[in-house]
Specification:
It is a single chain. The chain is an alpha+beta fold and 514 residues long. Strands 5-4-3-6-2-1-7-8 form an 8-stranded mixed sheet. Helix 7 crosses helix 8 and helix 12 runs antiparallel to helix 13.
Length: 514
Amino acid sequence: MSGEKFKAISVADFFYKNREIAGFDNPVRATYTIVRELVENALDACEQYSILPDVRVKLIDEGNSIYRLKVEDNGIGVPYEQIPYAFGQILFGSKYTLRQSRGIFGLGGKMAVLYGQITAHSNVKVISSQGGYEKYMFELSINIQENKPIIKKKEVRPNPGRWRGTIVEIKFEGDYIRAKPKIIEYFRQTSIILPYANILFIDPDGVLYRFDRITTVMPKPPQEIKPHPHGIDIEMINRMINSSRSSTLLDFLVNNFHRVGVATALSFLKSVKIDPEMNPRDLKPEDIVKLVNKMKVYDKFRPPDPDCLSCIGPELFKAGIIREFNPEFVTVTQRKPSAYSGHPFIVEAAIAYGGRIPIVPPDEILVYRYANKIPLLYDLHNDVTMKVIKKINWKRYKIDLANMPLAFFVHICSTKIPYKTVGKEYIADRPEVEYEIEWALKTCARNLRIYLSKKEKINIAHRRYSIIEKYLPIISQFTTELANENTQPNYEKILKRLQIHAKESEQRSIIQVN
């Protein structure tokens, strides 16, 4: 090894050389990923500030497999001084706080810029305003070796209409023809989980796809929180100590960790036999290892606060499903908050039956997966949701997966989704997450079983009425002839009474889908 040369590389350089791990492994996948990443950034810019999203997307074929993508939102906008770093520096973001968001590491949008730069020699053009009298235009690229933004052009323009939002425009090498099914499906599934968003997409053929909002009700935006003691490691706590201004361990724990008060911190430090007045910078390496190991297993820390999460909620989730499928029956449930490795999460699930839901082939299951409001379209069979669906005994719930028009929906929201890949395609089978998904689906299955049972009773009542309606006149005529009577009994009253009884039973039994 003495003859080898070693050289440090930047984060941008690493992803430049390994872009396939973020979903940029070929032109088809890259086209879908770039659209998705820029749309998700646009949606986050709106939802984090309780702004009803209006997102416009236009994809233009420039020829020779080069496409130009333009994404416009009505979000909060990006401050002038932050634009170069927000679009031209990979992993630029906050340090020691957590918040539910669609992205991880602030990576996707920058990777889109990087991919356009290395495949189409393209700069990213950004126009943004926070609603003031000025809007800002930047043309940027990324210095890959140093992971720094290169400002090619910048302008400050008047903003007479006080427009607010961000427009991102980028060129890249792609393949829309083969990526089209996934892109259209992405927008369709996004409209299900976000019934309060307006999304407009114009494809290279000039075809307009509109997904209009059906409600103005929005879930509350996610709140930023500090790390939970159960979710830290040695490297993280070393960095926190180096950046902290706390002069005592007691203050360090109280000021830097989620839901750790003075009494809890004192109790914990007493259990690990460390002086609360000790300066955290005086901790020896073995003390830090001991501290971290004890923090992970100490059971008196309060669980993470789920108020930091922003779920869709049963009503909005149901509204999106009904708008898309108009099912005969739909049931939605939201589980109580849980946590894994100190990260809070909530599972929402739904099962829809009938309506426009197709019956799929026997070896397929119609599953819609979401994580922090992102549709997951790849690697279904590696996802924890499919693992759970396959292990549930559906016959107990009178559900026949092979012959019923069924659709399953699972949404997980968390400050940290346990993805298996940086490309955000499928979720790992964490035991805590698997447990919550299983019981959410079982709750929905019980509701569907009740509906199916009542539906069967209604069908029996209708069949019985049909039989009586068919044969009662014949019986009436036969008994009249047998008794040598001139007039038949008035069986119309009996039929009317049976009909009223059947309708009342139906109204009592049917579960309305609102």
